[in-house]
Write a structure and sequence with these properties.
The complex is a heterodimer of chains A (316) and B (673). The longest helix of chain A has 32 residues. The termini of chain A are far apart. Chain A has 316 residues and is mostly helical. Chain A has one domain. Chain A contains 11 helices and 3 strands. The two termini of chain B are 48 Å apart. Classes of the chains: A mainly alpha (316), B mainly alpha (673).
Amino acid sequence: MITDLFTQGIQMGIVLFVAPLLMGIIRKIKARLLRHRGASVFQPYYDIFRLLRKDVMMAENASWLYRVAPYIVFAAIWVAAALVPTFATGLMFSWATDFLAIVALLGTARFALALAGMDVGTSFGGIGSSREMMISSLAEPAMLMIIFTVALLAGTTQLSLIAEYISANPIGLRASLALAFIALIIVTLAENARIPVDNPTTHLELTMVHEAMILEYSGRHLALIEWAASIKLLLYLSLFGCIFIPFGMASAPASAGQYAIGIILYLAKLLLAGLFLAIGETAVAKMRVFRVAEFLGAALILGLLATILLFVSRGI
Amino acid sequence: MTALQVILTGLVLLLCLAAFSCVIRTGKAWVRLYYGLSAIISTGLLIGAVPALLFSSGHPQTMILPVGLSWVGTHFRLDALSAFFLIVVNLGGMMTSLYGIGYGVHAAQPRRILPFFAAFLCAMNLVVIADDAFTFLLSWEFMSLTSWMLVMSNHRDPETQKAGLTYFTMAAFGTLMLLFAFGILAGADGGYSFEAIRGHSLPAWGGAIILALALLGAGSKAGLFPLHIWLPLAHPAAPSHVSALMSGVMTKVAIYGFIRIVFDLVGNRIGWWGPVPILIIGAATALIGVLYALMQHDLKRLLAYHTVENIGIIFIGLGLALAFHINGLEAGAAVAMTAALLHIFNHSLFKSLLFLGSGSVLHATGERDIDHLGGLIHRMPYTAFFFLIGSVAISALPPFNGFVSEWLTFQAILASPELPQALLKFLVPAVGAVLALSAALAATCFVKAFGVTFLGRARTAQAGTARETDRFSLTAMAILAILCLLIGILPTVAVDGIGPAVHQLVSAGLPPQGDSHSALSLIPFSSEKSSYNGLIILGFLLLAGSMTAWFIHHFASRVIRRGPAWDCGTPPESAASQYTSGSFSQPIRRIFGGTVFHAREKVDMPAPGETRAAHFSVKMSDPAWAFIFTPLNNLLEKTTERLNFLQFLTIRRYLSLMFATLIILLIMVVVWR
């Protein structure tokens, strides 16, 4: 019981404290690819600490919702990330929810943030919320189709069991999994406001979505939101790890050595995923906002195709 | 006294209340007394129905009154399904009555509302306990007419007049279809009691025809696309607590009619193709309903279109349940049916809550157009909070109740590769994708509805000076909001509660709930396949949130400074610079509007140097009207014009026409026999 709680605690701690580092590494790689020197990989931590120390500057007409939303966002994303198997499967609370609920928790976080964007009543907040919800209302069904695909394959919607199934059974290359993989890449880019859907570093009005929504935030509230955003990115990259390369994960209860191997492999997987993300982001240009619909529509269709393939036969 | 006698006594009391309200004066105290009595009676009916659902264990209570058709009598029956719907109806009745104690006194002409309110409640109860076709149709029509009177309470408004006409026509059409359906079910000998109908043999084509008629008849009342057109007109026209009843409860009674006919009376006489139209229409209704809702800027109309969406979701659940049931896959049927019934209950909760909230906003500001509102979270904090809970719940977000029923529907979809028919194998995943899309769009729609109404800055003076609503209204909303949360975190209680009704319909139930980890885990098939524990999620969220808050308050700066909004350095003076409902949904309109609504944007930009204002307009056409109802209307008009000459015949000709008709009918009877 105590050890179970302890490993679950480790998982919660890892997602919390590794997330900014992952963000820093991705930024560093991107900078190096562009022949900049780039900031230290620990810069996101410094940013968070600096923001935490600063006073909050808030609009006069901001309501309680505006003040509560960062905590809701942070808590919902943190809980969601804590329930995704990272270095081990079958952790203490893994049975409490399934893949569908994890995605829905991210939906709760987004709902709160989109409302907060509209709270002050500025046009930037409105444009950000409106576009964020447009993107998510196409990305979320695509994500659900991906869930359908892996759930039909593994016969369960529990992520832990999905990871165990895929690592235990030599399923080889599947057309359905390949389609789901491409769809998941698209959804990850869209949900985390990455290029080509959104640009995480810009403050240029015509191109920003996520940044416009949180434009009014400052101080500790902004720190929480930025931190939550990095956890969300870590969550999505962990999903790649746990669905497509679930190898080397410990299966709770396991020995300390297995957990250690699991953690090291998990960090390696994250690094690999981050590397690909950075390379991909450097290689493509951002697309116009209304092209995003086609981009995400492609993900939805791919996911649906993968699901239909599995409805016809579990062997495809 | 049996539960059924309790219910019937309550209904008689409701009718007495309706009669009593005709003679009372219309002072505030009397109106309050009226709604208070109606709340008490509804509570009694609710308490009477609960044990009938939980402890009936397959023994329905019946009663025959010697009134009505002479060879049929009036049959009543209380089984688990009726009891479940009685709970939905009377919980809604109770909450809207409680709300009415505060809200009802604002009515300009209470006598146009009071008698029909109680009669409407009574009629809905009668529909769900009727046990013969005659009583059922009579109660159904009684329900339609009383609700029509309520819609027409503000009859001088031309919009209300249009709504009333449309509603009246559609209600008559729906009842007509059901009349035919029962005609076929009863057979040539006219055995109208449901007991006799279950025993009849149907002709081979009977199942298909009855399914189609039930979809048309009950579907037009429930709001299936494209028969939903009356709903967004009529629901907003009624006073808000009545809108809540019509949207939250009456549509459910219509679904009851559908379930009773298709799952109970027709029974196993529907072929494997039966679920196909239900699933297709359900999916189309869900998607188009939410897209319509996104395009609205009238709060109550938006909510009414959302009812259309949710009806679609419920019908998807029913279609899946029928598909599993026909193929003998009872575990899947139980999950799908549980999902549908739970969503019926959930929707009645949060839709009532949202309509009551919109009623408070309407009373406080006199505005239904959300583009004239804004910033109400400061002026009406409690209403805003409850409306927010309703919005989160209807957007299917954890840890609230809407998520549980949609999660169950998705679980049923994931079980459907077991279905043997190839058509269903292709159809069900597509339906799943549509369901996912409409759920995500619903969240967008409620960010818009809540954000534009309650957040931001006040767009008009009325919105800036609004005042919080009264205590009774707030109590009603608070109870509904708490129920939304409770069912979200304790779904097993609700699922166990509706178990008997599910068992009655598909003769199977969910496996025993709870697993080795927790007794509160919701388990549709087995804990290896999927489970959901709302309480743990809520606990986790609260823990993570409070840890974060504790950390922030100890280690971070605690200072909050207030200043003008930053907005990239150019804070706008005018509240008109905020996003409105139209601008919020513009991206969605760009994506879907062109194909679904034929949306055309027109920008009239003056040339440089010209001083006139720029104009922007959007034209949209409603596909249901454009492709079905307007052509139908035109056809009707042309036909009546052609037949107009019949009005000016001589008496001789009229007599010969009548004679000819008689002869033709007699010939038909001879041939038929």
